[in-house]
Amino acid sequence: MNTTENIRLQDTSKRRQLKDKLVLGMVVFFSLVTVSPIILIIGELVRKGYRQISLDFLIKNTPDTYSAMTAIANGERIPGGIANGIVGTLIMVVLAAAIAIPVGIIIGIYLYENPGKRLANFTRSLSDVMQGVPSIVLGLISYLWVVKHVTNGYSALAGSVSLSIMMLPMIVRSTEETLKMIPNSLKEAALALGTPYHKVILRVLIPTGFSGLFTGILLGISRVLGETAPLMLTALGSSMINLDITKPTSAVPLLIWEFYNDPNMIDLIWSSSLMLMILVLVLNMISKQIAKKTK
User: Distance of CA 42 to CAs 38, 180, 186, 252, Å?
Assistant: First the structure.
């Protein structure tokens, strides 16, 4: 190798190193641009929302406008909390999960077992379309189905039905995709041993894909936790803690909307949003950790 060729190779190596550094810099820059809005939003929520966070904030009902106005005039923390919203949210999310999880898993198993059938293809397409339907439309459907004809009024049950409709497509698709990742030989081995088909599903496929199924369920719950529009048409809201699922019930997103319409409750908007953000972040972090273990 002569001197000229050595110089040419060194120049090529330097250009490659320069290109690598340039691409790395672009990746870092655009990564920072992507995450900066999230960091700014979380920072703003923490800065403005932490002042109202206390034990009373978690165990007391929402205050009235006069109490909030008096506290602000005296330079004090707004009394009361969002206990009615937290309890209502938990009730409706648990009910929605109880409706959506078994139905979604059964449909997902059907899609996995019948990939080429016309009904399966139609169901899969319908599930994909439902993921893009605006939440206010699903709330309107729940209003017509449940509020008008089942409970004859606004209720936590109607709210949970609307949330379950929103959760369903994500659980269906995550179930199907999770089952596809399980080696087919595992299912064939179980069938070859004479195991009944339903036991293969219940004791082989579902336990093997449990982490993936659980991740899809958590993502579905995370999606509906912050929904306001469907609950405005179904649950309506309540200023007190309500444990009767046939009566109007409050939720944290509904309270945020109510606080927004009252200038004396501005501080409670930030605190309620912070609580909701923390809950959604925790659920997403749990689902990501579970997803890592499945790889």
Answer: 6, 37, 45, 18
Q: Is 39 exposed, middle or buried (0-12, 13-18, 19+ CB in 10 A)?
A: exposed
**Which residues are bridge partners to 249 per DSSP?**
236
Q: How far apart are CA 8 and CA 16, in angstroms?
A: 12
pTM: 0.85
- Which residues contact residue 218 at a Cβ distance below 8 angstroms, ignoring those fewer than 6 apart? 283, 284, 286, 287, 290
Residues with Cβ within 8 Å of residue 166, at least 6 apart in sequence: 135, 138, 220, 223, 224, 227, 230
Phi-psi region of 79 (alpha: psi -120 to 50; beta: other; left: phi over 0): beta
What the chain holds in terms of domains, given with CATH numbers, is: 83-252 (1.10.3720.10)
DSSP string, 7-42: HHHHHHHHHHHHHHHHHHHHHHHHHHHHHHHHHHHH
Give the residue carrying structure tokens 């966070």. Answer: 53
Tens-place pLDDT, residues 3-51:
777 777 777 788 888 889 999 999 999 999 999 998 998 899 899 888 8
Maximum distance among all alpha carbons in the chain?
A: 91
Q: Per-residue pLDDT tens for 64-98?
A: 888 888 988 888 888 888 999 999 999 999 999 99
**Which alpha helices (DSSP H) does the chain contain, by range?**
3-49, 55-59, 65-73, 83-113, 118-131, 135-142, 156-181, 184-192, 197-200, 206-208, 210-225, 229-234, 252-260, 266-294
Instruction: Please state, in angstroms and rounded to a whole number, the distance separating the CA atoms of residues 76 and 264.
Output: 12
